[in-house]
Amino acid sequence: MKTRFIDPFTPDLPVDDPAKFAGRNTAIESVVDSLYQLVNGNPKHVIITGDRGIGKSSVLLQAKSFTQGNFELLEILKIDPGVKSYSFITAWHDCAPDQTPTTLASGILEQLQSEAVSFIKGFKIELNLAGFIKIAEKDTSQATLVEIVTLFCEELKKFSKKASEANKDGIVLFFDELDSVKQNSGVATFFKLSSEKLARDGVKNVAFFAAGITGAVQALEKEHGSIYRTLADIPLARLAVEEVAQILKTGFEKVGCKYDEVVIKEIHALCAGYPEPVHLLGSQILKSDKDDYLTIDDFKLAEKDVVETIRKNKLGSMLKAAGAGKYQAIMRAMASHSGSDVPLAYIAEQTGYEQSSLSSNIGTLVKRGIITLVTRGHYTFTDPLLKVYITRFGVIEPNIGDAEDEEDEDAQKVV
Predict the structure, then answer these.
(1) Cα 250 from chain centroid (whole Å)
(2) Are 211 and 177 in contact (CB under 8 A)?
(3) 3-state class of 380 per DSSP?
């Protein structure tokens, strides 16, 4: 009988344990430098970008951990923080599709007020929430947005002063899933105007740290062209084989499980460098194993369990969301390719369509979050397990061409 163990992998949650975090040296170095600049009166606002499931929230959580003086990950990665410790006041806000600048500002300030009480003894600030409610009742306009920014920055100045008086290093405001906010919501302009006003008012101990899917953040750029100048971009690439190996080996060894090297290679190849499925397969292969020694047979059983049971409904829903007709033809073609990154030329060859006629459909699939652009003319599934699902279960019929007119007028024609 196999001994029960604590699962060392976290497939459904961001990684908050530094010991389970792998790679991302360049991104972590940029995060650390931004905090170092902030503590020295040179605030740098940042946004962590990348594909869905690439680990943005995990990096943001590690950044939050640094602000409280936890440098365990920095010691593992051998990155110099430049200081002995940090003592920032922080607040975290998860963005939502219905978010507006008013709800964003009031929401993060309420969180900041709540957090500040635990950071500063005897802390007390009365927020002007009535002011935000009053503004929210007005019609959306540039003038109204300026009012929101003015009120938001005035409230932040109060916190900034209190933080300085308490000998804190400053204030860091975290905004996760910024990509969920609708385009033209005014949020991009809100960050731009807020950062500029704080700079004009001499508030140099406050910084914004955000995270969002690359394509969605690019959509925010259409609202305000300087969003990437306001929030310095820290892009996350897919994991290299060495980083995947580090995640898996650390997890396997933590529960005393030996393994064949081929298991590491197979999981990396299947997951295409995305950390979430790496954690999912790592977790499942440990559950499938019976003798504390992982082999290729254990990997195949774990893959089968994940695709045919654990993620079957989710993957089926993704395939359905792709659309019918030509969309399913594209799905079939991509799944038939030997690699994870599929050239548009290959899709055209397999479907029998000219590349130019696939442009709108490909753009729609990107917008729907089914595939993502890797490099110009090359695409991959946002969930690499979808490739295995299609290989095993096929695509949705009816036949190709039955729904070729189902196209999104707003599709991004990026080929």
Answers:
(1) 23
(2) yes
(3) strand
* Beta-bridge partners for 211: 48
Burial of 31 (0-12, 13-18, 19+ CB in 10 A): buried
| No. of helices (H) and no. of strands (E), the chain | 18, 10
Instruction: Report the C-alpha gap between 159 and 144 in whole angstroms.
Output: 23
pTM of the model: 0.83
pLDDT single digits (tens) 198-207: 999 999 999 9
CA 76, 41, 109: angle at the middle one, nearest 5?
A: 85
Which two tokens mark 215? Answer: 């394509």
User: pLDDT per residue over 107-145, tens digit each?
Assistant: 999 899 888 877 666 666 666 656 665 655 555 555 588
Q: Is 225 exposed, middle or buried (0-12, 13-18, 19+ CB in 10 A)?
A: exposed
Beta strand 206-213 with 232-235: parallel, antiparallel or unpaired? Answer: unpaired
Rounded Cα distance between 415 and 379, Å, is 9
Residue 152 structure tokens: 């938001």
Q: What is the pLDDT of residue 411?
A: 43
**Distance separating alpha carbons of residues 327 and 198, to the nearest angstrom:** 47
Q: Which amino acid is at 313?
A: N
Q: Which of 99, 81, 159 is nearest to 125 (CA)?
A: 159
Q: Strand pairing partners for 234?
A: 48
